[in-house]
Design a protein that fits this description.
48% of the residues lie in helices and 27% in strands. It has 5 helices and 5 strands; from the N terminus they run H-E-H-H-E-E-H-E-E-H.
């Protein structure tokens, strides 16, 4: 056999082993996530929150209590950005961690009803009317095309005025 085919077979074998390993890791993490979601659902309650601010920032810059920060792994604290929501609950202003799937839907400056477990917001509802859900995020190319169309429309309007 040729040396190139041997190298290709080794590469294929390594890729296959990695994909099988990732499959089983993903399966393990999915089970753990389901268990955590069940525990969170049992210990959560609906609360009324007045949303002051929301942002994605690192755990060290988030304003979370030190006891929460210490429980996070160091790499997670430094690299991963969390969806942080600052809200007023009664007389207190508290920093919450929002689920990534609902973070874009949370309105700033409005009062909402949120399903909160500890400092984690997992679900939201509007108190005074429905919450406007954000549509899927536009890609870079779609945003650039939209800006181009808007700029060309403005140029045409300027030419008509002259």
């Amino acid at each position: 056999m040729n040396i190139i085919t041997i190298i290709l077979w080794v590469v294929v074998a390594v890729l296959l082993a990695l994909s099988v390993g990732l499959f089983f890791l993903e399966k393990k993490y999915r089970k753990a996530k389901e268990q955590q979601d069940d525990i969170l659902a049992k210990n959560s309650q609906w609360m009324t929150l007045l949303i002051i601010d929301k942002k994605r920032c690192k755990a060290d810059d988030s304003g979370l209590p030190n006891s929460i920060k210490e429980t996070l792994p160091k790499a997670f604290r430094r690299m991963k950005k969390l969806a942080i929501v600052k809200a007023k609950v009664g007389p207190k202003i508290i920093s919450f961690i929002a689920d990534e799937s609902i973070f874009d839907d949370i309105p700033v400056g409005k009062e909402i009803s949120a399903f909160v477990g500890g400092l984690y917001i997992s679900e939201i509802r509007g108190i005074r009317g429905p919450i406007e859900r954000s549509t899927t995020k536009k890609g870079f190319r779609a945003r650039m095309a939209e800006k181009y169309n808007q700029a060309s429309k403005e140029l045409k309007e300027q030419k008509k005025k002259k």
